[in-house]
Amino acid sequence: MAEVEEEKGVQYFSRDFEWERLRDEVERDPLSSYHLSPFTTAPFSPSPGVADADAWRSFHRCHSTGKFFKERRYILKEFPELIVCDASISVLEVGCGNGSTVLPILRSKQDIIIYACDCSQKALDKAGEMVTTADLTFRDRFYPFLHDFSIDKFPDWLLCTVCQRSSPRKNFIFTQDANGQCLIGSNKPACLEAECCSGGLDFVTLIFTLSAIPFQRMSFVVAECMTVLKPGGLLLFRDYGLFDMTMLRFPSEQRVGFREYIRLDGTLSYFFSLDIVRNLFLGAGFIELELEYCCVISVNQRSGKKMQRVWVHGKFQRPILSTTSLSS
């Protein structure tokens, strides 16, 4: 599951225009009104682990050459925390696709270990091929595994030790009504109340991944990401933002939920507001460090047409544990 990097040399963290101005333009445009109206029919809900995952598996089979994706070299500029640390670090890339995020991270330091999961074996095979082709030594620091993170819990060997003991992990509930208002109920993982915690990862990356799954499952994924992080560990987030050019291009018949659309190939795309992202992560117990829209004007090299792109950039931290003892 991944985003397409369309334009060479684009700056991915900037403000070429004000998001509020774009919002006002869309709200005044009668042709865009269907994007803003409440979604009153039943929301799209494919059979868990079947329809949406199969669509992405088919997508990766069709694009198995890997040319569809470009390496995300901007990732280290947007998230310098990955390389400023002197110590050895571990990273989980959720929804790694063909490895376009993995490669620049592996190149950045010799003491970074990356675990990477995806629901598509074809994507994992291509990621492994790209990593090996780039540098044979990368294989020793790259551990891909097949995993549908939208419905399955992360394997115990990724978890902090407290989360391993507190089985089964509690589920999180996060929904929205027809107008996109958040309806939240959550149970913090046991590890947030623990006196000590060992194991877990330094970073989790969700790069154009969360938008690719049904909205109803997003809170489950975010909660699972919490369980695999060390206290103080960071979750690095980037995804499609509300009123991005891609959203405004979807016709009304491809709208399957509030701010949720389905492509002709069956893959999903959700467009996030800052409030939705904030409620998802804070509801799971994360601390917000950074959260804002990235508004970029990119130019199609062939047509010369300017496009207004909107992404959401976020950094969230798992709380550093207090001296509160784990209740029996």
Automatic annotation (TrEMBL):
<comment type="similarity">
    <text>Belongs to the methyltransferase superfamily. METL family.</text>
</comment>
<dbReference type="GO" id="GO:0008173">
    <property type="term" value="F:RNA methyltransferase activity"/>
</dbReference>
<dbReference type="InterPro" id="IPR029063">
    <property type="entry name" value="SAM-dependent_MTases_sf"/>
</dbReference>
<dbReference type="InterPro" id="IPR026113">
    <property type="entry name" value="METTL2/6/8-like"/>
</dbReference>
<dbReference type="Pfam" id="PF13489">
    <property type="entry name" value="Methyltransf_23"/>
</dbReference>
<keyword id="KW-0808">Transferase</keyword>
<dbReference type="GO" id="GO:0032259">
    <property type="term" value="P:methylation"/>
</dbReference>
<comment type="function">
    <text>S-adenosyl-L-methionine-dependent methyltransferase.</text>
</comment>
<dbReference type="GO" id="GO:0008757">
    <property type="term" value="F:S-adenosylmethionine-dependent methyltransferase activity"/>
</dbReference>
<keyword id="KW-0489">Methyltransferase</keyword>
<protein>
    <recommendedName>
        <fullName>tRNA N(3)-methylcytidine methyltransferase</fullName>
        <ecNumber>2.1.1.-</ecNumber>
    </recommendedName>
</protein>
